[in-house]
UniProtKB/TrEMBL annotation:
Substrate binds at K188, R338, N339. It comes from the Eukaryota. It holds the Pfam family NAD_Gly3P_dh_C. This is Glycerol-3-phosphate dehydrogenase [NAD(+)]. It catalyses: sn-glycerol 3-phosphate + NAD(+) = dihydroxyacetone phosphate + NADH + H(+). Keywords: Membrane, NAD, Oxidoreductase, Transmembrane, Transmembrane helix. NAD(+) binds at G82, A83, G84, A85, F86, G87, A222, R338. Residues 77-239 form the Glycerol-3-phosphate dehydrogenase NAD-dependent N-terminal domain. Belongs to the NAD-dependent glycerol-3-phosphate dehydrogenase family. One of its GO terms (molecular function) is glycerol-3-phosphate dehydrogenase (NAD+) activity. PANTHER family: GLYCEROL-3-PHOSPHATE DEHYDROGENASE, GLYCEROL-3-PHOSPHATE DEHYDROGENASE [NAD(+)] 2, CHLOROPLASTIC. GO terms for biological process: glycerol-3-phosphate catabolic process. Signal peptide: none annotated.
């Protein structure tokens, strides 16, 4: 073979290799594209099945009212139970999303002021409840009016009543609550008489196992929602479609962004059990400790919260998100938190009874339930136990620091 023939042969081989490499690259790219497409189809099919399971008992007209078509945003009837600070913020957020919003309260004067002045005279009165381009929030104050509003097909109920009043209210008024109405729970706490998660207590009060429930949580001071500060929340439901419904109702694509979750247990535990931890954070501030101590407290406390979430049947990853670490940081680092302020007052010598005369501090009583859960699950949880002991004056602040800092050395395990 001459030199010229050899050169041409090598050139052809190089061309064949380049062609082969190009073919392989194109095939790989096409494979990735089709695999991604199949995954999207799979997820879409899962959502379609979830929708079917949720709505198989509804008539065609009722399905339309629920806004099944996720490609368009339909106007929903939203009834907010409770006209406190957070109920007001939730009503305003739902109205910003273009929905027909009604707030139920027992105070007739408060109701009249909301309807005439478009302000809540008791809570967040500095903010107007008029939303530009959207119908104003309406107030109602009688059970007859509430029954009429709840009669709307596809109605969504946003529950914003105090935790300890919730199950008795639902038990007393269960006959006017439609069995297919989605109840979105925003109260972050546990029902103390039965030591239950709020969802379980509501279902027991209604005596229904199939009532659709969702749970909205995350770092969210009511005043900052009203100011329009960008805020992110998470909504969880056993039926993902119900979480998607609430996501579409509450998200306004400007100041409020809502994520979905299928872990109601984790979201409820994160929202409720961060309260006693926030009391502990207030105690740290009251002792005069700085950011080193508070950051360590929050980090290790979140690990204990994660342990308890696993033991109670929740997803530990939920505690890493908005309902866990997000809400925990909000309440531990901010003086706006009632629980955080309570911890400071306790360390300064005030009594629990005096602190709770004019305000409800969920973290005090919830600390008792947290220890009950820990004992039931066989968990040590030293931070929860120290906070509980400090609340009940069983140990001194100095002893609490010695107990926590003097624990045996160990390897940090991040789950």
């Amino acid at each position: 073979m001459t030199a010229r023939q050899s050169f041409l042969s090598n050139k052809r081989d190089d061309g064949n290799l380049a062609s082969l490499a190009t073919t392989i690259a194109l095939s790989f790219g096409a494979g990735v594209f089709f695999a991604t497409h199949l995954l999207r189809l799979r997820d879409r099919e899962r959502l379609r099945r979830a929708c079917s399971r949720t709505q198989k008992h509804l008539l065609k007209g009722q399905r339309s009212a629920l806004g099944v078509d996720l490609t368009r945003k339909s106007k929903q009837k939203v009834v907010v139970l409770g006209a406190g600070a957070f109920g007001t913020a939730m009503a305003y957020a739902a109205c910003q999303g273009g929905n027909d919003v009604v707030m139920y309260m027992r105070d007739a004067k408060q109701c009249a002021a909301i309807n005439s002045e478009h302000r809540n005279p008791k809570y967040l009165s500095e903010f107007s409840l008029h939303v530009d381009g959207v119908s104003d929030i309406r107030g109602i104050c009688t059970l007859e009016e509430l029954k009429e509003e709840l009669h709307t097909p596809g109605v969504v109920i946003i529950h914003a009543l105090p935790c300890q009043l919730t199950p008795p209210w639902f038990r007393e008024n269960k006959d006017i609550i439609p069995k297919d109405a989605l109840i979105c729970v925003t109260s972050k706490g546990l029902y103390l008489p039965t030591q239950q998660l709020m969802g379980h207590a509501i279902l027991d009060a209604l005596n229904r196992a199939e009532q659709p429930l969702a749970f909205l949580s995350g770092p969210s001071f009511a005043v900052e929602i009203m100011k329009g500060d960008p805020t992110t929340l998470v909504v969880a439901s056993d039926e993902l479609f119900q979480a998607v419904r609430m996501q579409r109702i509450m998200s306004n694509f400007r100041t409020l962004r809502v994520f979905t979750s299928d872990d109601p247990v984790g979201v409820q535990l994160g929202g409720a059990l961060k309260n006693p931890l926030a009391v502990g954070a207030g105690m740290i501030s009251g002792m005069g400790c700085g950011t080193n101590t508070l950051s360590a407290f929050v980090t290790r406390a979140s690990d204990e919260l994660r342990q308890l979430c696993i033991a109670m049947g929740g997803n530990p990853r939920t505690i890493d998100g908005l309902a866990g670490m997000g809400d925990l940081m909000l309440t531990c680092f901010s003086a706006q938190s009632r629980n955080q302020r309570c911890g400071q007052r306790l360390i300064n010598g005030e009594k629990v009874e005096d602190i709770q005369k004019n305000t409800t501090v969920e973290g005090i009583a919830t600390a008792d339930v947290a220890i009950l859960y820990a004992d039931m699950c066989g968990l040590e949880l030293p931070i929860f136990r120290c906070v509980h002991a400090l609340i009940h004056k069983r140990i001194s602040p100095k002893q609490a620091l010695v107990d926590l800092m003097g624990r045996p050395n160990r390897h940090e395990i991040v789950q």
